[in-house]
Specification:
The complex is a heterotrimer of chains A (281), B (316) and C (373). Helix content of chain A is 22%, strand content 30%. Chain A has eight helices and 15 strands. The longest helix of chain A is centred in the C-terminal third of the chain and has 13 residues. In chain A, 51% of the residues are buried. With 373 residues, chain C is of the alpha+beta class. In chain C, the strands form two sheets. An eight-stranded mixed beta sheet of chain C has the order 3-2-6-7-8-9-1-10, sandwiched between helices. A four-stranded antiparallel beta sheet of chain C has the order 5-4-12-11, with no helix packed on it. The longest helix of chain C is centred in the middle third of the chain and has 24 residues. The chains are: A alpha/beta (281), B alpha/beta (316), C alpha+beta (373). Chains in contact: A-C, B-C.
Chain lengths: 281, 316, 373
Amino acid sequence: MNAANPYLPFPARLVEACFDTPDKSLRTLRVAFEDPETAARFVYRPGQFAELSLAGKGESPIGIASSPTEGTHLLFTVSRVGLVTSALHALSPGDRLGVRGPLGNGYPLPDLAGKNIVIVAGGYAVTTLRSAMVWLLDPANRKKYGLITFIYGARSPELLLYPDVWRGWMGRDDVDCRVTIDNACQGWDCLVGFVPRVLKDVAPASEGSAALVCGPPAMIRFSLPVFEDLGWQPEQIFMSLENRMKCGIGICGRCNVGNRYVCKHGPVFSKAELDRLPAEY
Amino acid sequence: MNAYARRIREIAQRLLAEKRVDAVLGYRAGTVPMRARPFVARTPAEAGELTWTGFCVGNLARLAAGLGGRLAVCAQGCVSRNLVGIVRENRLRREDLTVIAVPCLGMLDARKIVTRMSGRAVTGVREEGDEVTVTGADFEEVFGRGDVKRDNCLTCLHRNPVLADEVVADPVPETGGGDIDKLIELWERKKPEARFELFTRTFRDCIRCYACRDACPLCHCATCFVNRSNPQWLGKTQDEPDVLTYHLLRAFHCAGRCTDCGACESACPAGIPMRRLTSKLESDARRLFGHEAFLSLDAKPALAVFSPDDPDEVFS
Amino acid sequence: MDEALIFSRLDVPRILTAWGAGRAVYIPETAGAQTAFALFNPERGLSLHFGNTTLSPKSFLFPQTECLLRFATRGPEAGLCQTEPLGAQKRLLFGVRPCDAAAFALLDRVFVQDDRSTDPFWALRRERTLLVGLACNSPDETCFCTAMDGGPHNTAGLDILACDLGDEVLLRPVTDRGRALLAEAAQAATGVPARGERGGAALGQAETRRMGAEAVMARSPFVPGLTLEAVSRRSQRTVHALGIWPRIAETCLNCGVCTFTCPTCHCFDIQDETKGGSGRRVRNWDTCMSWLFTAHASGHNPRPTKVERVRQRFMHKFKYMPMNLGGRPGCVGCGRCVRQCPANIDIREVLRAMDMACRIAPPSSLIPDEAVS
């Protein structure tokens, strides 16, 4: 965060980018700060986001998909929906952009030390959960946590993000990695079935556990009752919200849900907190 | 005016009691002096609050389309024409609309009264025939109605409603007596540079609150051009070109449809004389196309029809 | 200068001129039905007889359009943003009403929250602007500051509070900057310290005027009993789910008059603009009344209709802000929205409706409510 002026982005360059899906609606950008000192001082936590800035076009709040354990480059997976994101999709390696952040509160992973962690991801909402998983599985952190379960689903195989990462987890014995698609498909070697169904099969015990849940509304709607049936309390479940944002620091007044600003008090909220806020999101 | 209020209440209570309408859109007393508030009465008891004073400004047709159901609307001449407008523009069905026709003797301009009071606070206004009595903590002054009438009411050409399902009073003289085309001379006499200077000066105090747009019954686009971001048609800053572009574009969208009701001018918190634009639009439509907006449900709007002998002159 | 000083009313222009050394001095001026802060011109003099300005003075610290950053669009520096430097202009606003001053104090807490959320533009302008208030001796019908933790002679947010005593003006310092400012005034004109018999009389007169002003508000049909008490007790979910909102919203035009004239509304939009080889990132006042305010690029909008947006405004003022600011209402009772709303939607009535509905609404089924009487 630029101390003198929180509206001033740090200059950065696009290192490389690739489209994640055949329809090219999602593009993962690898970004490097122009100034190594900035890179060193940019300390972030899984679950935080940054405002990606293109001077002349505007800014877009994007979750940080990389983990701080992966070095000073940042990964952002951008969905092309409007003016700024279209311009982000059109960037070429070497092009300049701005990064303003880190913003938001991030997942409360340090507070969950000692617990079993269940991660439930659907569609391209998996972006900041990639950051959480990579962080958790880093040798410096893994031993501080109990069982780690990763449940991730998409409509079809080509819509699954980051196969280079989760395929590696499949072979590990310190993580239960379940990747699923909606309907059976030739050549698919993992699970078939909606995410809530897989969650039900896993039936994670509530005792000493916490869950990070990010996905489309339908997935959330059917997954939360599974947790409830297993005796999970709202304080144990964490979700990440999105909203239209501008300042990103809780001043411009636009992204609030109830008395909480998604950009500053969130984007991560426990289910218990969300239950106290008006459901206006 | 008291007789008007009585009649409106009678009609509204009957329509609601007989369940001929779901709601009656009219006015009730304002919470501050010199104001009347738009009000939706849904029961005969609520209809008892309906009133009619010289401060029933704004244009109820603006709210009519959004309320849904079968609606009765208290409408003077200009409002009734805008009701024709929203029916023609498919925002409301004629069969869902009951027009409570209110022949209008012209509305009062609270700002004119305030200016004449030179800082003394007004606590009440009484309207009796042609006299308007303004009272304060320690004063009482009487004006002729014409002295404090709204400008567009002075030059109104259609004071009797063009639609009427219920009638509140006998028809009144159709025009306000003033010469509407005299206002146009403000523009006509000037060369283009001087016109631009007047245009710029008129909107110097604009704060882009969009009250003019939101008070206007013509502005019912699902997404206003101002709210588009891809592409974005105009800047949102206070830079002069952006402010002027907004007003210019909106004026062109209203051209040929504007009834010069003055709701925009009443709504503007900065007191901008919006009518400098709307009166010109109205006059140009009459002069160039022989058309006055929304006088009947059957007449086609001037700019929605092409005829080979249309004048080449554009709205200027 | 620690204590208050009494000056002759006729000396005020001279004092303002003295304060104008190195500063731009603004005073309220009335033209027709509009009152606005304008640059003080000694030749035009000034009047202490005005209600309040049509627009709030927040634009002095939070301009409607403000450039945040600049950048080049071409060349090796393309895309590199630089902070827009603020001018060194010092200002003094004379005639700020206590309600607007309280709004400045409230906005201080919005624009300067903590290390991460400090707006340098507000902070700098605030530091460079001195506020001399004018106590209210004759509140307007629409004033209700006393119901919003304020008062006609309150000093919160001001550097000096002036009180019009007729032939004399009492200047009361509030802050250290105010004390220094008062010393400057004492150099320009003869100020009698407000102590002893003479001082006591003046202070007594000011007190009488204060009580008179409060009595005027107490006599308003809207003010007595107007309180946030029940709203603060109930959960935000309960207040949000009250059945009153559709009726309140149905005649609202969803324009931006209330938000733009309001001294505590602070929402803004950030946009980029380019022209040729250069560009700027600029912020503009925005309004929660607009559909675009919360519209996601995907097309989803958490506040899709007028009802949600109208509810948001009143929830923000009377529930969310007090929750975040230790109970301080988000409204200062200046009455501008009441006077200027084209549809005459009266915030005092809305609060009363919220209050009554909160007293009788049953406990929220989903979560235990804080206190239901």
